[in-house]
Each structure stands twice: as structure tokens, then as C-alpha cells.
Specification:
The chain is mainly alpha-helical and 201 residues long. It has helices at 3-10, 13-25, 47-74, 81-98, 107-110, 118-125, 127-130, 133-155, 163-200. The two termini are 17 Å apart.
Length: 201
């Protein structure tokens, strides 16, 4: 794994770090109802909070795009569905930082729905590299969670009074998955490379 590939994978930790800011930002805004208002509603608040949130969204999106490049460079498959889904997610997050939720360009017409297949496709694609049943189970659980949550949202089963809180709780495993995926891929690929060099030596 060369320096650029390794860096593009490791920098994905920025996704969950910046997400912590976005998840928690609403809790420090005076009068902001974190139970009812979504994370994206922070962009409609005072400039100091709104621009912190929007910059974090853009950082998350850019980091996802670089992670997608790292996935493609390390993928054993010529056609990488996990790369495509993570890249589309990245573009949706960048758009969320540029446009507010008052326009359909926010999340680029709900491209964020590709989060449903990202964890599962990634774990399947790198099954023979990461070799971790626990990670596979976690990835499958995260994908299932997304399907279940989208169903709850579209079916109207989440009361508006707690919509914001539910979204914030949902975002924790969603964004946390990227940090775990980056760690697993980076450590296993690095170990594999070291083993190859040791064998060739």
C-alpha cells in the first residue's frame, strides 16, 4: 500500500470526528430543540453555529470521497460497488454543506440513501482481506439499521417530537462505521504488505 492509498484510507477517521461536532452542536445552541429538530436544522441557526455545521458537512463529504478513492485502490474487484456508494455519499454530504434543507439539492435529492448498501457491500468486497466475522456482522447490522430507519421515516412511524433525537442516535453507528472500516482496511492491508515484504526478503 503506497503512501497516497494509505493516507486516503486513514484520513476517513475525519468522518466520525467531524460527525461528533455535527451530532453534538445542537445541544449547545440556546433554545434549539435537539429532540424535534434534525441535524440539518443547525444550518438555519446563528451564523457561528450554521457555518460550523456546514463546514463539518463539507469536510465529511470530502473525506468520504477520498475514502472512496482508497477503497478503489485497494479493492480486489474491478467494479467496486462500495467505492461507488461511498463516493455518492460523499457528494451528498458536500451538497448538504453547500445547500440547506430548504432545497432538494441538500443531500442531492437524497443520495444519502446509498448508505444502505455501503457497509454491506464493503464487508463483502473486502471479506478475504479483512477476515473478521465480527466486522462483517457489524456491517450487516448497520445496513439493516439503515433499511429499518428509512422504513420508519417513510412510513411516518417516528413522532416529529423526537425526530431530531432519533436521527442523532442513528448517526452514531452510521458515521462510526467509517472509522472502524478505515481502521480494519488500513491495518489489514498494512499487515498484508509487511508479510509480503518479509516473505520476499
Amino acid at each position: 500500500m503506497n503512501f497516497f492509498t494509505k493516507a486516503s484510507v486513514k484520513q476517513a477517521h475525519l468522518i466520525w470526528i467531524a460527525s461528533i461536532i455535527n451530532i453534538g452542536l445542537g445541544f449547545v445552541i440556546p433554545g434549539f430543540d435537539v429532540f424535534a429538530k434534525s441535524i440539518s436544522h443547525v444550518a438555519l441557526e446563528e451564523p457561528v453555529f450554521a457555518y460550523t455545521h456546514r463546514i463539518a458537512d463539507i469536510m465529511i463529504g470530502i473525506s468520504m470521497c477520498f475514502f472512496a478513492i482508497g477503497i478503489q485502490l485497494t479493492s480486489p474487484s474491478r467494479i467496486s460497488f462500495s467505492m461507488a456508494s461511498v463516493l455518492l455519499l460523499g457528494l451528498s454530504m458536500i451538497s448538504a454543506g453547500i445547500w440547506t434543507l430548504e432545497t432538494p439539492l441538500h443531500l442531492l435529492y437524497n443520495l444519502s440513501i446509498f448508505m444502505i448498501i455501503a457497509p454491506l457491500s464493503f464487508s463483502l468486497e473486502f471479506k478475504n482481506i479483512i477476515k473478521s466475522p465480527s466486522f462483517e456482522l457489524f456491517s450487516a447490522a448497520v445496513s439493516f439499521l439503515h433499511v429499518f430507519m428509512f422504513w420508519l421515516i417513510y412510513a411516518g412511524f417516528i413522532p416529529s417530537e423526537i425526530n431530531g433525537l432519533v436521527q442523532r442516535m442513528w448517526a452514531i453507528p452510521t458515521m462510526g462505521w467509517f472509522g472502524i472500516a478505515a481502521y480494519m482496511l488500513g491495518s489489514r492491508q498494512f499487515s498484508a504488505n509487511n508479510s509480503m515484504h518479509a516473505t520476499s526478503a
